[in-house]
Write a structure and sequence with these properties.
Length: 215
Amino acid sequence: MPPRIDYRRCTGAGTCVSVCPANVFDFIDGKGVVMRPADCTECEECVRACLKYAVTLEHSRTGKPRVLVMYDSVSGRTATLAKAIAEGVRQAECSVAVLEASGEAIPEVLLADAVLLGSPSQFENVSEAIKGLLESLRIIALANRPAGGFGTFGWELKGEDGIITRKLGDARLATFDRELWVKDDEVEARRDDAVAFGRSFGEWVKGQLSGAGPA
Ligand SMILES: Cc1cc2nc3c(=O)[nH]c(=O)nc-3n(C[C@H](O)[C@H](O)[C@H](O)COP(=O)(O)O)c2cc1C
Ligand code: SF4
């Protein structure tokens, strides 16, 4: 499918016009405009290049759903959990990318069919990096994109329980009905639970994308 430009965010930098190898855009009245949609090869360059995250691209549904598992991790527990969850998502026959959260990773969120966000508990909340990412998602407004959350904690689960899913819902993404939180010293022992969580998330994503779930 050709890209779409959100003109509420486009500032007319013309990056999409200059990076597109297939000459899909023209620069008209100070904005990039999709003029030759049939020529788009879905190379994703325009999505990655736009500094305002104004370009989105829905992939032609020929392959496996693409799930992004994005996490923040200070001492490695959430990273370990993310990898086990990703294995489960893969078992559900989705393709998976696992990435550390950062502002630069936002185009990867735009390009994914579904996203799972993971955070360490910090002061009974998600970490600052995940807070920032959730705020960017709220602004970018990827309505109905399937999404879910997971995390690790050290002492006691309080305000952070369910927080990622709630914030994803506030950002109008379609949310998975479970959020997995694992205590830091149980991440290895609960690996099977993490894989099972990833697998059921992957199955749910497939249902959502095929239109089986609520829009
Ligand atoms: C600054 C800081 C604040 C934390 N706050 C909490 C907390 O409020 N509740 C809790 O249960 N654990 C808390 N922890 C423990 C971490 O959430 C826990 O060890 C987690 O597994 C670390 O994940 P990571 O290895 O991916 O960084 C805190 C840790 C740090 C470093
Ligand atoms: S995805 Fe690639 S080919 Fe398609 S419009 Fe963007 S830059 Fe051009």
